[in-house]
Fold DUF3168 domain-containing protein.
Amino acid sequence: MKASIVDILKPLNVPVCCLKYSGTAPTYITYFIFNEMGDLFADNEEIVTGYHVQVDIWSKEDYTDIENQLKELMTAAGFKRTYAIELYEEETHIYHKAIRFFYEEVV
Protein backbone atom coordinates (compact mmCIF):
# COMPACT_ATOMS: atom_id res chain seq x y z
CA MET A 1 0.00 0.00 0.00
CA LYS A 2 2.78 2.45 0.88
CA ALA A 3 4.53 2.11 -2.48
CA SER A 4 1.18 2.50 -4.23
CA ILE A 5 0.54 5.88 -2.60
CA VAL A 6 3.97 7.18 -3.65
CA ASP A 7 3.34 5.98 -7.22
CA ILE A 8 -0.14 7.51 -7.33
CA LEU A 9 1.16 10.91 -6.23
CA LYS A 10 4.29 11.00 -8.46
CA PRO A 11 2.63 13.29 -11.05
CA LEU A 12 2.46 16.06 -8.43
CA ASN A 13 6.24 16.56 -8.69
CA VAL A 14 6.66 17.24 -4.97
CA PRO A 15 8.40 15.01 -2.43
CA VAL A 16 6.12 12.28 -0.98
CA CYS A 17 7.24 10.45 2.17
CA CYS A 18 5.73 8.08 4.68
CA LEU A 19 5.33 9.71 8.11
CA LYS A 20 8.25 12.16 8.04
CA TYR A 21 9.96 14.44 5.53
CA SER A 22 13.47 15.68 6.24
CA GLY A 23 14.28 17.59 3.03
CA THR A 24 14.17 21.29 2.26
CA ALA A 25 11.42 21.63 -0.37
CA PRO A 26 8.92 24.39 0.46
CA THR A 27 6.03 22.07 -0.39
CA TYR A 28 5.90 18.35 0.35
CA ILE A 29 3.48 15.55 1.19
CA THR A 30 3.52 13.02 3.99
CA TYR A 31 1.11 10.14 4.50
CA PHE A 32 0.38 7.32 6.90
CA ILE A 33 -2.04 4.44 7.30
CA PHE A 34 -3.97 5.05 10.52
CA ASN A 35 -6.21 2.00 10.36
CA GLU A 36 -5.78 -1.24 8.45
CA MET A 37 -8.35 -3.93 9.04
CA GLY A 38 -10.09 -6.95 7.62
CA ASP A 39 -13.17 -5.58 5.87
CA LEU A 40 -14.76 -8.71 4.41
CA PHE A 41 -14.42 -12.34 5.41
CA ALA A 42 -15.49 -15.68 3.94
CA ASP A 43 -15.00 -19.02 5.70
CA ASN A 44 -13.03 -17.21 8.44
CA GLU A 45 -10.56 -15.88 5.88
CA GLU A 46 -9.97 -12.20 5.16
CA ILE A 47 -10.79 -11.53 1.53
CA VAL A 48 -10.87 -7.71 1.56
CA THR A 49 -8.59 -5.39 3.54
CA GLY A 50 -9.68 -1.83 4.30
CA TYR A 51 -7.12 0.96 4.60
CA HIS A 52 -7.74 4.36 6.19
CA VAL A 53 -4.99 6.69 4.95
CA GLN A 54 -4.18 10.27 5.84
CA VAL A 55 -2.33 12.39 3.27
CA ASP A 56 -0.91 15.71 4.48
CA ILE A 57 0.13 18.62 2.28
CA TRP A 58 2.69 20.93 3.91
CA SER A 59 3.54 24.22 2.23
CA LYS A 60 4.76 27.75 2.76
CA GLU A 61 2.92 28.68 -0.45
CA ASP A 62 -0.59 28.30 -1.83
CA TYR A 63 -1.19 24.56 -2.20
CA THR A 64 -4.65 24.71 -3.85
CA ASP A 65 -3.53 23.29 -7.22
CA ILE A 66 -1.66 20.43 -5.53
CA GLU A 67 -4.66 19.71 -3.32
CA ASN A 68 -7.02 19.51 -6.30
CA GLN A 69 -4.65 17.29 -8.27
CA LEU A 70 -4.04 15.08 -5.23
CA LYS A 71 -7.78 14.50 -4.74
CA GLU A 72 -8.19 13.68 -8.43
CA LEU A 73 -5.27 11.23 -8.42
CA MET A 74 -6.39 9.45 -5.27
CA THR A 75 -10.03 9.11 -6.34
CA ALA A 76 -8.97 7.93 -9.82
CA ALA A 77 -6.95 5.20 -8.05
CA GLY A 78 -10.06 4.03 -6.18
CA PHE A 79 -9.66 5.90 -2.89
CA LYS A 80 -12.74 7.52 -1.32
CA ARG A 81 -12.21 10.87 0.44
CA THR A 82 -13.71 10.78 3.93
CA TYR A 83 -12.40 13.88 5.72
CA ALA A 84 -10.31 17.01 5.26
CA ILE A 85 -9.16 19.87 7.46
CA GLU A 86 -7.08 23.01 6.90
CA LEU A 87 -4.51 23.89 9.52
CA TYR A 88 -1.73 26.40 10.06
CA GLU A 89 1.37 25.45 12.02
CA GLU A 90 2.23 28.57 14.04
CA GLU A 91 5.73 27.45 15.09
CA THR A 92 6.94 26.72 11.56
CA HIS A 93 4.64 29.07 9.61
CA ILE A 94 3.57 26.22 7.35
CA TYR A 95 0.12 25.70 5.86
CA HIS A 96 -1.11 22.16 6.40
CA LYS A 97 -3.98 20.32 4.72
CA ALA A 98 -4.87 16.89 6.11
CA ILE A 99 -7.02 14.70 3.87
CA ARG A 100 -8.25 11.25 4.81
CA PHE A 101 -9.15 8.50 2.37
CA PHE A 102 -10.50 4.95 2.51
CA TYR A 103 -9.46 2.14 0.17
CA GLU A 104 -10.52 -1.50 -0.09
CA GLU A 105 -8.16 -4.10 -1.53
CA VAL A 106 -9.02 -7.69 -2.40
CA VAL A 107 -6.48 -9.96 -0.70
User: Anything to note?
Assistant: Helices lie at 2-9, 64-76. Residues 64-76 form the longest helix (13 residues).
